[in-house]
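Please predict the structure of the following assembly.
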Amino acid sequence: MSIDTERAQQEKVEPPPGPVSLVRAELPRWAPYGILVASLVVVGVLLAVTGGFSIGLFVFLSAVLFGLATYLVSRVVEGARKATDRLVTIVVTVAFLIALIPLISVVITVVTNGLARFDAAFFTQSMRGVGGANDLAGGGYHAIMGTLIITALAAVMSIPVGVLTAVYLVEYGSKSRLARAVTFFVDVMTGIPSIVAGLFSFALFALFFGPSIRLGFAGSVALSVLMIPVVVRSTEEMLKIVPNELREAAYALGTPKWRTILKVVIPTSIAGIASGITLAIARVIGETAPLLIAVGITTGLNLNPFANRMATLPVFAYYSYAAPGVPREPFIDRAWTSALVLIIIVLVLNLVARLVARVFAPKTR
Amino acid sequence: MGKAIDAKNLNIYYSSFLAVEGVNMTIRPKTVTALIGPSGCGKSTFLRSINRMHEVIPGARVEGRLELDGKDLYGPGVDPVGVRRQIGMVFQRPNPFPTMSIYDNVIAGQRLNNKKMKKDATDDLVEQSLRGANLWNEVKDRLDKPGSSMSGGQQQRLCIARAIAVQPDVLLMDEPCSALDPISTLAIEDLINELKMDYTIVIVTHNMQQAARVSDFTGFFNIEGTGKPGHLVEMDETKTIFSQPKEKATEDYVSGRFG
C-alpha cells in the first residue's frame, strides 16, 4: 500500500481544502552512497568481531544489507514506488557487476601471464628447432599465420554462401516450404558442437585422402560449417529491418527486383551485414576442437593450406600447455602469449566491426 | 506524355479474397483524378493495381482489363517492370533512399536501371526534375547532402522529383499529403496543378477539401461491410460529385454523413 493511495483514500472521506500537493519527500542525493558506506562498515565490523572475515562473504553480505537498507529507508521516506525503483536499480547493477567479474578476471590473467613473451621473437619465430635447456626463444609466428590463413579461407567460403542464403530467405523465399526448411536447418547448424564440425570435415577429407590427412583447408571447411549459420542469421535480421517502403520506391521507378536488392536493400543494410560478418569471424577464430582434429599442429611455418599440417593459435596454446617440453616454463609462457594474441585479434575485429558499421551507415546530415 | 487509363470490369484479388469488384473507370489524359472513400474500400488497392505495384504482395492478381492508351497492362508477356517505368508512383510516407544524396535520389530511376548518362545531361535532368517539383531553389546548394536531411514536405517533393525524372506518362499518388503539415500540403497541391500540364495524375486522398481543390474528376469508392469487396460507387466531374452526386451514398460521404 503506497502513501499515494492512502492519501487518496483519506481524501475520499474528507477532501482537503487546497489543491493536492505535487511535492513529495525525497532522499538527498548522497543517501545511496551513505547507505553503501554504512553497510560496508557494519558488515566489516560484524565479520571482524565474529572472526570469520573473507572477501567474498564481505562483498556478498554488504550487497544484501545495502539493498535491504536502501529499500527500507526509501520506503519510509519516499514511498513504495520509489523504494521498489531503488531496489531494482541495485539488483540490476549488481547483476551487471557479477557478469563483469569473469571478463575482467580473464583479461587481467591473460595480460599478466602473456606479457612475458609478448616480444618481437614471438611474432617472428616459429617453433622449428626450439628445444633444450638454454633455448628460451621460439614463438608463435607460424601459429599466427596459420590462424589468419585458415580463418580468411573460411570467411571467403562462408560470406557469399551465408549472405546469399539470407537474401534468398528474406527476398525470395518468404514463406515457401524450402525457406522454412532452410531456416530450420540453419537453426540446427547454429547449435552444432564445434567438434562435430571438425569431425565432419576430417571425415570428408579422410574419405578422399586417407585417415592420416591433416590440412589447413580441412580446418577452413570445419570453421565455415560453424560460421555460415551465424552469417545467415545476422544478415537475415539486417535485411528484414530494411523498410518495405524503400523496396516499393525502387519498384515504382521501374527497377527489377534483383537490382533493387543489389542497389537499394543491401546498401541500406550493409553496415549491419558487415559488422555481423566481422563478429562471425571473431566467433570462429578462437575455435580449438575442429582445428585440433582437422589441421593438427606443426612446429614450422606452413603457408600452404592445401598441403600438410598447419599450426593455429588456439591449438598451439593447447599443445604448449598440455604437452610442454623440458623445461616447462617457456612453453607455458608461449601458451599464455598465444591466448593474449588471440584476444587482441578478436578485440581488433570487434573494433573493425564498429568502424565498418559507422563508415557504411546511411548519413543523416 | 499523359496517357489515358481504362479499367473494364476490373476485379482485384489477394489470393482468393476479392478486394475490389467490378471497377469501370476511364481516366482522361492530362487530368487530375481523385479517388475518395472510407478506409479499406479498395481505392489504394485499385491505385496500386494501375502500375502493378499490388503484385508485390504474393497472391495478388486481377481479372478484367486495365488499359493504358488502349494497351492491356495485364496482357500476356507484359513486364510489370516496364509498366512501372511508364506509370510512376508517390507514396503516403516520403521514402527517399537513405544511402543516396539528394542528387542521386533524383536520378535514382536512371542509376538503379544502369542507364549511362553524360554528366551534363544528368545535371540538367536533376535541375529540371527538382524545378518541376518546386524544390530546386531550396536544395540547389546542398545537392550532395543525404535526402533524409530534409523536412518531411521537402522529402515528399523529392520523391515526386524522383518519380518525374523517369518521365512517366502517368503519376499515381497514394495519399501524398497525409504525413505533411498544411504548408507542405499546399506546396504539393500547387505542384499537382502544374504537373497536370504534362502528366495524367491519379491521387488517393482522405481529405475531401483536397480532392475538391486539386482534381478535375472524382471517383467515390465504398464498401458494404467488413469482408465484402470494395467497389466504385460513382465517378464524375469533381464539382458534380461535390454538388449534386447521383448516388445517396456519395452525397452522405462528401457531406460528412455516413450510413
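Residues 119-132 of chain B form the longest helix (14 residues). Chain B has a mean pLDDT of 88.
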